[in-house]
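Protein entry
_____________
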Amino acid sequence: MSTQTADTLLSFEEALERFDPAMGLEVHVELNTVTKMFCGCSTEFGAEPNTQTCPTCLGLPGSLPVVNGKAVESAIRIGLALNCEIAEWCRFARKNYFYPDMPKNFQTSQYDEPIAFDGWTEVTLLDGEGAGETFRVEIERAHMEEDTGKSLHVGTSGRIHGADYSLVDYNRAGIPLIEIVTRPITGAREKAPAVARAYVAHLRDLLLGLGVSDVRMEQGSLRCDVNLSLAPRVSAGSTTDVPLGTRTETKNVNSLRSVERAARYEISRQAAILVEGGSVLQETRHWHEDTGITTSGREKSDAEDYRYFPEPDLVPVAPSRAWVEELRATLPEPPREHRARLQALWGFADLEMRDVVAAGAIPVIEATVAAGTTPQAARKWWLSDLARRANEQGVDLSDLPITPEQVARVQALVDEGALNDKLARQVIDGVVAGEGDPDAVVAARGLAIVSDEGALGDAVDRAIEANPDVAAKIRDGKVAAAGALIGVVMKDMRGQADAGRVRELIIEKLS
């Protein structure tokens, strides 16, 4: 079989001239329940390793699981939001495989009887003019299961290859998961990577609106497995059905940017193999954020390899139709309608809203507005300085170490006259750097605007004395020349002056 390295990729454009990509996306969502899926252990993130475990989630002999009712409720609400059918009767199964972070050597999941199935949703890609193209994504199933533990590979790479030794933390084992599986997404062609990103972003917004998960991708509470295959390109108008190619599954991709990059990389990698006459191996692959490539994991197992059988220690789940309809009534407005309402409420033009959607900034702007600032001010900070930082770090806006409430406080300080925009950017730098809340950063760095009229007057006098030619122009009525003196004063005051007040003092002194 032809081997593949990052140096022998086929260009993305040439790959699409020869092949049609098909994608299947599996999104794993950790629910925000207080306790685990089958026991009463806490699900709080960040606890000391192996302090949130019990005989049940460790799989000790004689321990018996009990289904978390809140998790079942969340699963139904997710299924309804994705236009799924909700099963009248379903049950759990044992998925048998060995992995160090699987304490029971099987995962309690759902196999052929998921709680939600046959759904759909739609995502929209916006072009440079703000117009959109809508793609329908068919949902095969959304099923309940439990998370695994977490392996920590100690060494230079942080991965199992080359590690000195490995540790296992079972705190995460047993946390409720919903796995949302799409049917193959075809026909997107060159837009396939962007559709993958838009779909995961859409799910994140939907789940956040439902209140069932914190969807923190950097903490692993939302993860995407990107299944991708290539088939020979079919000419336009052809009625011939081309079978799907051999797929790879890039595991646990944990940012929107990486979902798009991983799909794009696999298209180029698989195309190079096929052009050289090789065969794509059905396997799992690891995504490397630092290098932007995927590497081989293990040969992908088929369903029969997992030896599924019904879980004997759990009774079936049979949600009544009355309960399902009660839960349907609790659903928030769909993301598309939510965006349209916010755009009208915020007064954003189509292109402004396009940029907000493209940046994944709706949740953070909405929260910043709720914290007391204006939509335009919230948009200014999140789509300029903070968007640049997120792009440099390769993370999503919501993953930056600054909260919407802190951004709103920075703007409040500007509105109060305590900061100008230049100083506000320094305050944001301090907050992102972990120096504390905005007020603490202002105090520690001494960034507040100087409001002492005497100090401002002295600085204006020094600027006038040092620039007599400019002062003469202002005395002759050329008020626009005041800008030069304002710059001198602002430099003298280290930017800690109200430019508007400085201008007033200059005009007063030279009138």
User: Anything to note?
Assistant: The first strand starts at residue 19 and ends at 30.
